[in-house]
Amino acid sequence: MPKHRTAVVTAYEALSGEDDGRVCRDIPDKACNAQPQNFLRHALALGLSKSGDGLSDPKLVLSWLLTHLGAPAAMVGLLVPIREAGALLPQLFTAARIRAMAQRKWAWAGAAFGQGMGAAIIAFAALTLDGAAAGAVILAGLALLAVSRSVASVAYKDVLGKTIDKGTRGTVTGVAGTWSAMVVIIFALILILYSEHRAVIVIAALVTAASAWTLAGALFTGLQENKGATEGGANGFSAALNNLRYLHEDRQLARFIIARGLLTSTALAPPYLVVLASGDGGAALEGLGALVLASALAALMSSYVWGRLADQSSRKVLIMTGLCGAAAMVATLTFAAMGLAATLWAMPLALFMLMIAHQGVRLGRSTYLVDMVGQDLRAIYTAIANTAIGVILLASGVFGAIAALAGAGATMALFALMAAGGAYTAYGLKELGDGTKS
Fold this sequence. Notes:
Number of helices: 19
Number of domains: 1
CATH class: Mainly Alpha
């Protein structure tokens, strides 16, 4: 490190809590020296990507857009499955190809450009089409966005592990989550204040998302990444099947996937919370802006904190978020039973608690997976875990449809049990060691 302090180093130390005498533990000296610059590039690029996610959220923004454009209800129902399955299921088959790249930042950058193109297609359809035609093109754009995201997910964890030292990874993702949440909060406030122009605002947000992903890809190409191992880079179905052996060979990986699968309840539960609120005449959750605001506020207030905690113990974060998610769901059921769902504070408070838990799950699972294995297997482990969760999410869709026959309350109770089960399963994971600075 040069002795003179630059703005980059000062910003890095302020955000990470590091000092000039840091010692890196699991990245080479060259990467350690470049960590201040890499930290800020990660925080900016990932934050831009997360901003794009919030501005084009399929559960909220795109669902409203398809309804506004008069697309069939069946197409609206396909948004979340396409987004989740497209982002996760291909990863087992793309991991080997990404592994064959000595520098995987190029895979993430290319995937960011792909996501930007997908968002641009969606915005174009919203401007020029309506009805089923608009729905079909928007679903196609979302499919491109989702598959591109699947590549980014595999590549990112590997690049993060090569360029950012253990003990700082959760912090950099937390910083990105915090500032991107502020962008989405501004978007939500604009929607609330200028609700009569909601369609124009949503289309502008989609154009902004496309631009954000494009800029993120450009920023990521400047990352200083050492060349990594490329052995085992053969791609195809046989390589994917061969990778599944790690589920048997590494019981911690299998347990992590089970815990993560159970904790998907924090992502699946919000629609049922909205049903409980609206079913009791609750006006507090009506409107696109209010929903986006609740989600963004939770991300803003919790991302950095969860990131710092994950650097100390990502296992404990998974435990805490499972318990927090279960508590939020129990609170939802309690408010509904007490007749408080129609109040201005009860259901928004429950949704806020639930989204805080979900933010912690996302950060905890990402940090734990990066820390549990070295860089030679990181991309493969990421692909295995994400593909398994993609299958679980598809199964959960069927499960949710069947459970809904018993009512939203019963479904929420089942998700609360899943969250508590996820916390219990995470308790049995190995502690990977704290991230206390050396």
